[in-house]
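Lab notebook, bench 4. The sequencing result for the construct came back, and we need a structural model before the next group meeting so we can plan mutations. Quick request posted to the team channel:

Model the 3D structure of this chain.
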Amino acid sequence: MMKYKITLFACAALLMTGCTSDKFEIPAGDVPAAVLNAYQQKYPNTEATEWDAAKEGGSLVYVVCLKVNDKKIKSSFRPDGTFINEK
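Done. Here's the predicted structure in token form:
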């Protein structure tokens, strides 16, 4: 019975570590100035509703969530402010 409990615990621990994400919400004050400037140039007169940082392909990416004409948009930038994509 004890062996069964240990096996069950080990499987649960492995599953939980596989569910972790490399994406996390960050405050706007922690976003690099180059990214903020690129965002403001691309989307003037908009307000970001959320900023996230994520690891994609081993590189750090900043994702901003915003609304443009009542449409929700997620836009990604590299730390140097280079625009990546928009969803």
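Residues 21-86 form a domain with the Nuclear Transport Factor 2; Chain: A, fold (CATH 3.10.450.360).
Will bring this to the meeting.
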